[in-house]
Amino acid sequence: MRDPYSVLGVAKNASEADIKKAFRKLAKKYHPDQNQNDPAAQARFSEVNQAYEIVGDKDKRGKFDRGEIGADGKPKFQSHGFDGFRDYEDFGSAGGARGFRSQGGGFGGGAAGGGGFDDILNDILGGFGGGRRARASAGAQAGAGASAGRKPQAAKGSNAELTAYVSLEDLVNSGKAQVTLPSGKTVNVTIPAGTVEGEKIRLRGQGHPGEMGGPAGDAMVEIRFRPHKLFEVRGSDLVLDLPLTLYEAVLGAKVRTPTLTGAVNLTIPANSSGDKTMRLKGKGLPTKTGGHGDLLVRLQILLPPNGDTELETLMKAWKDVTPYRARGPEFD
Question: What PROSITE patterns does the entry give (predicted)?
């Protein structure tokens, strides 16, 4: 067994997070489901697992760094006195296994500080045929203490990571989104009020099927908002840019303004400046407290698309008769 730090390609003083990151990358690269006809890759996968079993576990890593155990996880014998007495610890289960298999029968003996082997394979290898099959493959190659003739046990299926894209209209009006489960079935997911983008909803028992009659895993549905052509999401509030003509801004007007629940007539006060923000209460997204955020309407003044001689004449006269400052002294 090579030095575990070298196997994972990390320095001896690497952080737990860096070690975990290196392991995830190598385990994904050399996983047997990705390299079914490559014995060398499968052997490398086994070596990576053994290395992480040592340096991914805070206690074992300390013992290895102090020279108390070797790269194979076994104690290094030290002589005490002339009678040849040797002091050692028992690492692993009966038969000298390196601790890959826990008492519950699953793989994951190490990595106390950085996330167990079992959790990591569930996380990164579910798409390669399920975390349970990955752990079984790893255990078979690493000789992880499975005794001959042991009866297969029921195992829970791995979680399925899904993404639901929901429109802002559906978020406000129906509160539901559609997702397709690993079984191929399409279902409507109820989105709790106040859900923000990136939150996950757990559907229990809707993940990947279990093994040997074990229960299915869960479906973890991440909520993502579809981009909207008019509205920008800002927490529970929405932001809308409302274009105005010059005369609407100067004289005031009632302007038809879209919202997620239907258009309303917004009263624009006379002499409104561009980029002024008006607030429509309760026209935003649902909140966790049962209410709604607001719709923030930013006024955007647009000039005529083509030059207008009358407007130019008016502006020249206005400049001479009623000049005013649009910028403060900080712009001087």
Answer: DNAJ_2 (PS50076)
d(CA 35, CA 30): 7
Q: 230-233: long-range contacts (C-beta < 8 A, 24 or more apart)?
A: 230/258, 231/168, 231/260, 231/295, 233/168, 233/197, 233/285
Distance CA 5, CA 19 (A): 9
1 burial class (0-12, 13-18, 19+ CB within 10 angstroms)? middle
Q: Report the alpha-carbon distance of residue 256 to residue 266 in Å, rounded.
A: 6
Residues 57 and 4: beta-carbon distance below 8 Å = no
Express each pLDDT in 233-254 by its tens digit.
999 999 999 999 999 999 999 9
User: CA 39, 157, 108 angle in degrees (round to 5)?
Assistant: 60
Kind plus residue range of the DSSP H or E element containing 254: strand 253-257
Average pLDDT, the chain: 81
- Beta strands 186-190; 200-203: pairing state: unpaired
Residue that the structure tokens 């299915």 belong to: 216
Written as one string, the DSSP assignment of 17-58 is HHHHHHHHHHHHHH-GGG-TT-HHHHHHHHHHHHHHHHHTSH
Which residues, at least 6 apart from 191, have a Cβ–Cβ distance to it below 8 Å? 166, 171, 175, 176, 177, 201, 223
Digit-coded pLDDT (tens) for 281-327: 999 999 999 899 999 999 999 998 887 888 888 888 888 888 888 88
Spatial CA neighbour of 27 closest among 3, 9, 1: 9
End-to-end CA distance of the chain: give it in Å, rounded: 72
pLDDT band at 153 (very low <50, low <70, confident <90, very high): confident
Is 90's pLDDT higher than 50?
no
**Token pair recorded at residue 234:** 């800002």
pTM for this model (two decimals): 0.51
pLDDT > 70 in the chain, percent: 77
